[in-house]
Amino acid sequence: MNKPTDEADHAHQGTLVWDGWLRLFHWTLAAAVGVCVYTGLFGGFEAMDWHQWGGFTVLALVLFRLLWGMAGPATARFSDFLRGPGTVLAYLRALGPGQAPQRRGHNPLGGWAVVLILLVVGLQGVTGLFTTDDLFVEGPLYDLASDGWARLANQIHGLGPWTVGGVVGLHLLALAVHRGVFKERLLGAMVSGRRPEHTGEDVQRRPLLGGGLMVLAAGVVWAVLTYLP
């Protein structure tokens, strides 16, 4: 008896395109990266424990996202949104004010932006394990690195304010363009998981699988930090 009303409410809310685990990953990664950037630039020696724990969190989250990109719901999978150069160029040519081609999940350009962000923050996390300030702070795996690799890790990690700041800036700019030019509320969708401009079936929720993979990712990082040094 209430079916028409339920369908109307669903249509008004839009389709669930981002599952809960993907949204948790997104906002936790944003917080962890923020902690790392702030403590790295302004925290001083006293904040290095927070900096390292932020980096460990980033590594666990990146590993989880790689796993979720293979086993998660449709819109979380890399196979859903990674496309070749021809598709990306066709998408760019089709752009126009208020008429961006609609996709339920990431568009072809945004898909590669996801990969870029994961590469940049993941590389920062990995190189941080092998860095040292030659005074007080060493990464937990510093003793395993050769002199050449330690120097390279220090150089790459030192570029963090530029590389991480660059991809975060591009991400925020893209959000602003989608909101102002294409009238898409991407930020709100990453909070609620729903996009009002889309109708159709919600993505499949996989709470137990997501929890298991998150525990697995955290366990792998913990094991590396515990048993490799």
Layout of strands and helices, then pairs:
Blueprint: H1 3-13, E1 15-16, H2 20-43, H3 48-71, H4 78-81, H5 85-94, H6 108-128, H7 147-158, H8 160-180, H9 186-192, E2 194-195, H10 207-227
What does this structure look like?
The chain has a single domain, classed as Fumarate Reductase Cytochrome B subunit, CATH 1.20.950. The chain is built from 10 helices and 2 strands; from the N terminus they run αβααααααααβα. The N terminus is likely disordered. Helix 3 crosses helix 10 and helix 6 crosses helix 7. It has a two-stranded antiparallel ribbon with strand order 1-2. It is mostly helical. The chain is globular, with a radius of gyration of 20 Å.
What's a concise summary of this model?
By secondary structure, the chain is an all-alpha fold.
Fraction in beta strands: under 5%
Give the SSE order as H and E letters. HEHHHHHHHHEH
How would you write the strand order of the largest sheet?
Answer: 1-2
Number of strands: 2
Radius of gyration: 20 Å
- Share in helix: 55-70%
Poorly predicted parts: 1-11
- Largest sheet properties: 2 strands, antiparallel
